[in-house]
Write a structure and sequence with these properties.
The structure is a single chain. This protein is mainly α and 149 residues long. Among the domains are: 75 residues, lambda repressor-like DNA-binding domains (434 Repressor (Amino-terminal Domain)); 26 residues. Helix content is 46%, strand content 5%. The chain contains six helices and two strands. Strands 1-2 form a two-stranded antiparallel sheet. Strand 1 and strand 2 form a beta hairpin. The longest helix is centred in the C-terminal third of the chain and has 25 residues.
């Protein structure tokens, strides 16, 4: 059964940790099953079949029949994105929206940067604190370090 559980995880693009989190069980339980240390408990099997109602119980328990219930198209099931084989996730509209949002965030950063040049800070109420180092970062990704000693 551990191989069938591993196959479910592969088809769903789930790591053992994400699979355990999805089923609301301890991550160590899945680790022990996959390593062959423990067999899956009735609780684990029940949670798999409850959360993934498209899995054929006969296949999961006995290894007979198809992985998916009859009438279920495996390609139509939502899957976790695969790091190495990602499909286009955003539509054209959401891409445009993301670009506009990024533009406005950049403008806001420029405005806040301009305002920061004119701010002054008062430290008269903190006599016990001393400056140990000042670092100035430049827009060409260089910096200078100043120490009062």
């Amino acid at each position: 059964m551990k191989d069938r559980i591993r196959l479910i995880m592969e088809r769903e693009n789930l790591t053992p940790a994400k699979f355990a989190d999805m089923l609301n069980i301890n991550r160590a339980v899945i680790s022990h099953i996959l390593n062959g240390r423990n067999n899956p408990s009735l609780d684990v099997v029940t949670k798999i079949l409850g959360d993934m109602d498209y899995i054929n119980p006969e296949w999961l328990i006995n290894g007979t029949g198809n992985m998916y219930k009859n009438g279920i198209d495996p390609e139509s099931l939502p899957k976790e994105p695969d790091l190495f084989n990602q499909r286009e996730v955003f539509s054209v509209e959401s891409k445009a929206k993301a670009e506009k949002q990024e533009e406005s965030e950049l403008k806001n950063q420029e405005i806040s940067h301009q305002n920061a040049d004119f701010k002054s800070f008062e430290t008269s109420n903190r006599p016990d604190k001393k400056i140990t180092q000042i670092i100035i970062y430049y827009n060409d990704n260089t910096f200078e370090r100043f120490n009062p000693y």
